[in-house]
Amino acid sequence: MDTNATPERAEGGSATADQADQIRGVARGDSPVPLSVLDLSTVGVQHSASDALSTTTELARRVEEWGFQRMWLAEHHGMPGIASSAPAVVIAHLAAHTSTLRLGSGGVMLPNHAPLVVAEQFGTLEALHPGRIDLGIGRAPGTDQATARALRRTSGPLSADDFPQQLGELLAFLGDDFPIDHPYAAIQSVPNGPVPPVWLLGSSGFSAQLAGQLGLPFAFAHHFSAQNTLPALELYRRSFQPSSVLDEPYALIGVQAVAADTDEEALDIVRPIALSMLRLRRGMPGKQPTRQEAREYAYTELEQSFVDSWLEDAVYGSPETVRGGLDELRERTGVQELMLTANVPDRDTKLNSFELVAKAYRMI
Predict the structure, then answer these.
(1) pTM (2 decimals)?
(2) Residue 88 and residue 20: Cα distance in Å, rounded?
(3) pLDDT value of position 119
(4) Are 321 and 251 in contact (CB under 8 A)?
(5) What is the pLDDT of residues 67-114, one digit of tens each?
(6) What phi, psi does 40 have (nearest 5°)?
(7) Is the distance from CB of 224 to CB of 203 less than 8 angstroms?
(8) How confident is the model at residue 154, as a pLDDT?
(9) How would you write the chain as a 3-class SS string?
(10) What phi and psi values does residue 211 have, to the nearest 5 degrees?
(11) What is the pLDDT of residue 78?
């Protein structure tokens, strides 16, 4: 992996306490690690994007009350079932409706954007809401090839080979500074005050290794790449170099987690999520189907195999079942934080799921 284009991070010494404290979460209640939230503003067939974003707003208010550490929004494009295509916009809205909850991107897909624009957007968010913003960066397009070309204004082949260079530019705009002979050396990102912590996101080993080499916190997408979770985390820890940001590794994983009053009800809730994922993998993204549609869908043997595999990687059931599954996953992975996602369009069902988890850990 070529990382020569990335700026050097300070080696050894002590991490800056302010940024390190913003990265490290606080465990609440009986939870052994901080619990956080990843939301996609899920749109169901019976809902609108406005409904989904309103639910996201209410979720932010509630999880702040219930003691969750942070809430991130994911960048996806061209997907009718996901309304979070512009994380920075949604983050600004959520920050105005909360007061203590950390808010961030999970993540901004850097190849879709000019690094200077991302630095300006998140510098502005940090200026508006000091000490509450996270900047999670990914290198996947977050969409199909045609839409990615439209985002990047190119008709050529798509590649993330220059991601380390783009990341280096972003970090420099955020305050690491360019070498004096760099063509961007005289350019300032404004606002140019305190900057949010930068996280690297990934679903394979590439970002894990890069995050370790740069001494940055790492977030792994266990909820859709579970087979790579342990190898990626091991690579991150093995590659880690202390930096001005962190003295030691800090990793979280995203987990599809849905709690309901009973195991049977939770299964009924997650079936539509699995069907949505099946359709997405077949190149047919759409709004999330109803529970009835998911129950009555005639799965082929191959489709059923996919759904069964997806369900194995999700944590769902009664509050006791979910707590047990999350505890086992944390022990197996050794992560410092769990970020829960419940891709449920119905507001009451989604809020109830997170409230049940909070109660299971005596956070409320």
Answers:
(1) 0.93
(2) 22
(3) 97
(4) no
(5) 999 999 999 888 999 999 999 999 999 999 999 999 999 999 999 999
(6) -110, 5
(7) yes
(8) 67
(9) CCCCCCCCCCCCCCCCHHHHHHHCCCCCCCCCCCEEEEECCECECCCCHHHHHHHHHHHHHHHHHHCCCEEEECCCCCCCCECCCCHHHHHHHHHHCCCCCEEEEEEEEHHHCCHHHHHHHHHHHHHHCCCCEEEEEECCCCCCHHHHHHHHCCCCCCCCCCHHHHHHHHHHHHHHCCCCCCCCCCCCCCCCCCCCCEEEEECCHHHHHHHHHHCCCEEECCCCCHHHHHHHHHHHHHHCCCCCCCCCCCEEEEEEEEECCCHHHHHHHHHHHHHHHHHHHCCCCCCECCHHHHHHCCCCHHHHHHHHHHHHHCEEECHHHHHHHHHHHHHHHCCCEEEEECCCCCHHHHHHHHHHHHHHCCCC
(10) -60, -40
(11) 87
Which ranges of the chain have pLDDT less than 70?
A: 1-17, 141-144, 147-148, 151-160
- Domains of the chain with bracketed CATH: 17-256+345-360 (3.20.20.30)
Percentage of the chain beyond pLDDT 90 is 84
Looking up tokens 């934080």 gives 337
Give the pLDDT of residue 192. Answer: 86
